[in-house]
Design goal:
heterodimer, A: 489 residues, alpha+beta, Uridine Diphospho-n-acetylenolpyruvylglucosamine Reductase, domain 3, 5 domains, eight-stranded antiparallel sheet, 16 helices, 34% helix, 19% strand, B: Alpha-Beta Plaits, five-stranded antiparallel sheet, binds flavin-adenine dinucleotide
Chain lengths: 489, 373
């Protein structure tokens, strides 16, 4: 609980005098529960208060109150994050952007849209679709997640293979620093003089401050889109097809893969009429019509050369939508084949795919669990889903352990512990596996410049929080290069 | 400069910097020196040159990634990558002479930025050495990766003031297969700007789109990159959009014209703005006898006669439009050079604090950067 005097300051900051139709500061226990976790539901913390500012000035006023009293705060968009990024801090404040959901400006001549952080991802595209434009980053959660969450996580989606991640599509931002000061990062013009603090802020998971106004880049919708579905007997054949497509110089809009288990679950959930096979490849091409037609022909041949026994090109928009519906249902569909599951998010070099999948299967068999796989195959981003039953004593721990070991496997094969879901609370310790101490210390220097008092989303991203000013000596060797890989947590 | 040292490996570089830091000795970081004058002069008695750290260290051509030592000449890197039909899809200035580290530290870009993005979009990991000798890495070798802060973006365009870039991990692209370039000329900017807008607002696949001054007015150059059959279609659509102007096949050198804007007796400036504002800046430059090449992405290079007033006037106009002007070259014999940098908009205190955290004694390229950082 925060002292009444501080709660009054927070109420003042957002103009909540207890007489309006809606409260802007929430402290009632039962209402706070709505905010106790994000999409990673096994971590829960009750905040002291939730504040709902209506504009940037109010956000600044709230952060100033927090700065004055040393109260930690956590920004929250739609709470769909999958790594515990929006998990509250005990005794801290949650800043919800639910009421800051206005599109402020549309500038088609310069292909820019300016939004408040609470705007939902698809609403940007909705606002410019009639003029033939779209906002490219497309997380599967795009109909609910917010731009504030997207910039904090540097979210991606199936079409990022061609169009790039959120960071490619943000050009400027107003940010309230943890001190309560407001700064503008980046500019509508390219290459703003000074350090690229915008580039650092994107993907910093709410640990460097709070965005209140975001300038986005929009993209012209391509003339034609085609989707192809191909069935393979082995993951290796499907993976080789992905490499071959890239090798001939094509950059498809999306290349997604599902293994037998996840394709079967999606079939049961969404009835996309998928062929039953070991590996299902979904390739979307977009661009000028003549080019898409020619390339689709070429992709079909590459699939067949790699022994695909069924290649299906969607003929209508409805067929296309159905194919995608199955892919997008993949996570939720797991509920049909397993009581519980853990979604992971690792990245490997694309060429390591067959080998890593074999290894995952071996590791799963060793502990008698099943792992279903969907992945953004074009960029090597795996989403292994570890299936388990909470009702069986001890199985959850085994499943969690397996899911972390899969991440370490990704690091061992030259990859990363997260491609799009972020580190948050979930993967802090894995950061120590992927990066050496000096790497993490160097990142801390950025943190200390932005947030010396560690008030913005503290206790996330980094494995061992250090106080600013505390310094370790310089190191030179990376632990993965130095003898073996073992590390203790 | 009293002395220049050229470390040949990471350990040497690290211990050299550690010693300088202990002695509080300022150092100037040098690549090939092609962009040494792009920032403020540095008062240092020691130069550390990166050219001893050279070569493509790893080229995972099937994954379209590569790790390249910072002292590698840009075109040497491109030749090595071309053996597998790949490249870093960026066309910086002075490619044959520049080092990779120098291009990255100054965040240079060219015409291809329209299609492939800037270095921000092409760098996936970095190895750097801090002032105190710490060797740190960020990012990685995979294209998709959100683990930890994106230090590679912080280092790109930091002019060597936060750390020495030792190696860079790039995402690669296949070498463009078939391209076709067209030029449309006119005496006035307005019809060309309308065409520029029409192209940007179209679904045509462009590698590059630039507006420039010419001896008889202005010109627009566009490069399409697509399958041969599509190039034909694009050419027809260009002719339609351009009416009544007549596109002609572009001369090969139009995409290298930027380099001609550096001439000994002239001032050269990089000006930034939003695409729709280019048409306001180009005539201003032309009317004062200058020449300019501008990209659809909003970066413009201008050659002006070396009069401080001209530079100041153009800078003010760019800043009014939300952009900036950086002076890249100024003849040594003309006194009263205007400031190299536009004043940064906001966040300068935060930038100084970043500098203090990374280089507390300010030994790395002191004073070179924005705001005297
Ligand atoms: C079914 C499902 C599918 C998903 N699919 C994808 C996918 O395909 N790709 C993908 O990348 N992600 C995916 N996600 C994860 C998630 O949707 C994204 O991370 C999304 O960007 C989070 O947005 P949000 O508004 O819910 O943010 P929240 O979960 O509320 O917050 C996420 C982080 O952003 C910070 N934050 C929020 N607003 C601000 C602000 N204004 N300023 C600073 N920091 C802020 C929070 O503090 C927190 O750290 C999926 C999630 C679900 C549940």
């Amino acid at each position: 609980m925060l002292p009444t005097a501080i709660l009054d300051e927070l109420r003042n900051a957002v103009g909540d005098h207890g007489d309006g139709p809606q409260r802007s500061v929430i402290t009632a226990q039962n209402q706070l529960q709505t905010y106790e976790c994000d999409g990673l539901t096994n971590f829960r913390v009750l905040p002291a208060a939730v504040v709902l500012p209506a504009n940037a000035q109010q956000v600044q006023a709230v952060v100033q109150v927090c700065a004055r009293h040393g109260i930690p705060f956590v920004a929250r968009g739609a709470g769909t994050g999958l790594s515990g990024g929006a998990l509250p801090v005990e005794g801290g404040v949650v800043l919800s952007f639910a009421r800051m959901n206005r599109i402020l400006e549309i500038d088609l001549a310069n292909q820019r849209v300016i939004v408040e952080p609470g705007v939902i991802n698809t609403h940007v595209t909705d606002a410019v679709a009639a003029q033939g434009y779209f906002f490219a980053p497309d997380p599967s959660s795009q109909t609910v997640c917010t731009l504030g969450g997207n910039i904090a996580e540097n979210s991606g989606g199936a079409h990022c293979l061609k169009y790039g991640f959120t960071t490619t599509h943000v050009v400027a931002m107003d940010v309230v620093l943890p001190s309560g000061e407001v700064v503008t990062l980046g500019s509508s013009a390219p290459d703003a003089p000074g350090y690229d603090l915008l580039g650092v802020f994107v993907g910093s998971e709410g640990t460097l401050g709070v965005a209140t106004r975001i300038t986005l880049r929009i993209v012209k919708r391509p003339e034609a889109v085609q989707v192809l579905l191909a069935a393979f007997d082995t993951v290796a054949d499907a993976a080789q097809t992905v490499s071959d497509v890239i090798a001939v110089g094509m950059l498809p809009a999306a290349m997604e893969m599902m293994d037998r288990l996840s394709a079967a679950a999606s079939e049961a959930a969404a009835h996309p009429n998928y062929p039953v096979c070991e590996a299902l490849l979904l390739i979307e091409l977009d661009g000028p019509e003549t080019e898409v037609n020619a390339q689709m022909q070429q992709v079909t041949e590459l699939c067949q050369r790699n022994r695909s026994w069924e290649v299906r090109v969607a003929r209508t928009a409805a067929e296309r939508a159905l194919i995608w519906k199955g892919r997008k249902a993949a996570f939720a569909a797991m509920g049909r084949i397993s009581p519980n599951y853990i979604v992971q998010d690792g990245v490997i070099p694309r060429t390591a795919l067959p080998e890593v999948l074999d290894e995952i299967a071996r590791m799963a068999a060793e502990v008698n669990l099943r792992v279903a796989n969907v992945f953004h195959a074009g960029d090597g981003n795996l989403h292994p889903m570890v299936l388990y039953d909470q009702a069986i004593p001890g199985q959850e721990e085994i499943a969690l352990d397996l899911s972390y070991r899969i991440l370490y496997l990704c690091v061992d094969r030259g990859g990363s512990i997260t491609g799009e879901h972020g580190v948050g609370k979930e993967k802090q310790q894995a950061m120590g596996y992927m990066f050496a101490e000096p790497d993490l210390d160097t990142m801390q220097r950025v943190r200390c410049a932005f947030d010396p008092a560690s008030l913005a989303n503290p206790g996330k991203v980094f494995p061992t929080p250090r106080l600013c000013g505390e310094k370790a000596g310089p190191y030179t060797q990376h632990p993965l290069q130095a003898a073996g890989i073992a590390e203790i947590f | 400069m009293e002395q220049v040292v050229t470390p040949t490996n990471l350990e040497e570089l690290s211990s050299l910097l550690r010693t300088c830091n202990q002695q509080q000795r300022a150092v100037e970081i040098l690549g090939a020196g092609t962009r040494r004058h792009w920032g403020n002069p540095v008062a240092a008695t020691l130069g550390i040159q990166t050219t001893g750290l050279s070569g493509v260290q790893e080229h995972s051509w099937q994954d379209l990634t590569a790790t390249v030592a910072a002292g590698t000449p840009w075109s040497t890197m491109q030749q090595a990558l071309a053996q597998h039909g790949q490249c870093v899809a960026l066309d910086p200035l002075f490619a044959t002479r520049s080092t990779v580290g120098g291009v990255v530290a100054t965040n240079d870009s060219g015409a291809l930025r329209l299609r492939y993005g800037s270095l921000r979009d092409l760098i996936i990991g970095i190895t750097l050495v801090l002032a105190d000798g710490t060797v740190a890495r960020s990012g990685g070798k995979v294209v998709k990766n959100v683990a930890g802060y994106d230090l590679q973006k912080l280092m790109t365009g930091a002019y060597g003031t936060l750390g020495v870039i030792a190696a860079v991990n790039f995402r690669l692209h296949p070498l463009p297969r078939s391209v076709a370039s067209w030029t449309v000329g006119a005496t006035e900017i307005a019809p060309l700007d309308a065409l520029r807008h029409a192209l940007a607002d179209s679904t045509l696949v462009m590698e590059a789109l630039q507006l420039r001054t010419t001896s008889s007015g202005f010109a627009l150059d566009v490069q399409f990159g697509a399958l041969a059959s599509t190039l034909q279609d694009h050419a027809e659509r260009l002719h339609f959009l351009a009416r009544p102007l007549q596109p002609v096949p572009a001369a090969a050198e139009v995409w290298q014209l930027r380099e001609q804007l550096f001439a000994p007796e002239q001032a050269t400036a990089k000006v930034t703005c939003q695409p729709a504002q280019l048409a306001a800046l180009l005539p201003l430059i032309a009317n004062s006898g200058g020449t300019a090449v501008a990209q659809q992405t909003g970066t413009l290079l201008a050659a002006l006669s070396a009069q401080p007033g001209l530079v100041t006037q153009l800078r003010q106009r760019a800043e009014q439009l939300g952009g900036a002007l950086q002076l890249l070259a100024w003849p040594a014999e003309v006194a009263e050079a205007p400031p190299r940098w536009s004043e940064p908009r906001g966040a300068i205190a935060l930038m100084r604090e970043i500098k203090r955290q990374f280089d507390p004694q300010s030994i790395l390229n002191p004073g070179r950067f924005v705001g005297g950082i």
